Amino acid sequence: CLDSENKSIMGNIKDQSIKEMWNSERYMKFRKLHTERRFSEIPLCNTCESYRELTFWDEI
């Protein structure tokens, strides 16, 4: 994945620790949507075709 337009900002290291960002509601939702393969609900992913070509999802 590549967020070349920096649209998926999860926090600011000047204001939060990495642990705080990782455990934030926003990041937990982001990870949950990925795990559930609900890419169309993720703004960064909903216009991307690459994830549809990945085959490893069926092996997880």
Note down, in words, how this protein is organized.
With 60 residues, this protein is mostly helical. It has one domain (18-59). The protein is built from three helices and no strands. The chain has helices at residues 18-22, 25-35, 50-53. The chain is globular. The two termini are 18 Å apart. This is 4Fe4S-binding SPASM domain-containing protein. It comes from marine sediment metagenome. Residues 4-49 form the 4Fe4S-binding SPASM domain.
List the defining traits of the structure above.
33% helix; 3 helices; 60 residues; mainly alpha; globular
* Helix-strand pattern: HHH
Q: Quickly count the helices.
A: 3
State the helical fraction: 25-40%
Note the quaternary state here.
single chain
Specify Rg, calculated over alpha carbons.
Answer: 13 Å
What proportion strand? under 5%
Please summarize the sheet with the most strands. none
Low-confidence stretches: none
What is the secondary structure topology, with strand pairs?
Elements: H1 18-22, H2 25-35, H3 50-53
Short description:
InterPro entries: 4Fe4S-binding_SPASM_dom, Aldolase_TIM, rSAM_sf. The protein is mostly helical and 60 residues long.
